[in-house]
Prior knowledge:
Order of helices and strands: HHEHEHEEHHHHHHHEHEHEHH
Strand content: 5-15%
Radius of gyration: 21 Å
Shape: globular
CATH architecture of the largest domain: Alpha-Beta Barrel
CATH class of the largest domain: Alpha Beta
Number of helices: 15
Oligomer: single chain
Number of strands: 7
Strand order of the largest sheet: 1-2-3-4-5-6-7
Amino acid sequence: MNTTELFTELNNSSLEVRLSAVRELGRRIKSKEITMAKETSQTNNHIHTMFSFCPHYPTTAAALSKKAGLQTCGSADHDSYAAAPEMKEAGRQIGIGTTVAVELRVDFSEFGFGDRKINNPDSLGIAYVIAHGIPVIHADRVNKWLKPINLARNLRNQRMVGDLNSMLAGFGIKPLDFERDVWAASEARNGGSITERHILYALSKRILDENQPEKVVDYLTDKLRLRSISPKLQKYVTDPTNPHRVYDLLGVLKSEFLPGFYIQPNTAECIPGSEFLRFTRSVDGIPTYAILGNIAESPTGDKKAEKFEDEYIDTLVPTLVDAGFLGLAYMLTRNTREQALRYKALAQKYSRPEINGVDINSSRQTFECKELEQPGFEHLADSAWMLVGHEYEVCNGRAGVSFEKGISLATRDKQIKHYADIGRRSVHEA
């Protein structure tokens, strides 16, 4: 089997085949039959996988991260922890630090932000948060906890497909089938979640399958009545040689068409923030607030230019620290340098660890994170390794990180360095 075939097997729908492939990849790396890129200072703690929405299974995500020269990589799926065991095993086989997380939407009403747009483009009072660094020894508890959240989400997903079909009928377009077109394209049968992107993916495939490439933009403007498609995206979706067309079209639909059938989630799906904090701490996770910040242009084309929490973040962060959030996450690939420096200063003011990453959910996105190499953010590599070391220690019966309110910046940095060193050593012990 050549290298191209081996990487194809890493993304096979069979877990057994994927694990066999990653073991073979690890063997070839160790024997120097395959040479990966020279290791950089880059990391990524926020890779979506096939278990929420992404074209990559965890084995592929780990291998592409290694190929890009990343030191560490981490899965962070929406409402799902199913990628975790596979991601950890892939890292062990190919020699890359791995960390695992769950990304959720929670109700921030109890924190006084119920009527504000926080870091969620779709809902007021609902925020994206991340349970970082949950050790895999807690997998059964985490999966059980997430089950009712996904049941509630899928009831809403089915209702949204119904509302979408009503819209499509008005345009003379045949309806989507939730089971055949949406559920079957997900990993829900294996513990994955189904998101709005799965619905839009099904619609994107339908549009591309039924229209000649040069007619796609006319279809979007005449049939779906979309008016704000940039010239760049028009070029992408009409190019038959573009291997990312379905994801590019999905981005257009998410930004311009989703609001027409989107149904707001309820509190069964978006639990109170205090419940998220309680459970995450109970499974040795690091509850983290993910700063979005005002957006001028979305890197993946699926978010409109819009204002989020920047105007009141100096009030938001101390409120969340008081509530029990331990980490602050932001994205150097999405935020401007000025924004990132502001978030860094806030994290240091309140002695919170900074966790960075790139929310990969499209085949168009590269696994390189060169922005992490810019001056002033070198410390983010230690934060990534801290997560690896934290999980390693808990899985081996020892205490993990404990960033409590009121600790000094020096204590924060010392603790990050301690667990980062453990994380780096753990990869060599695998």
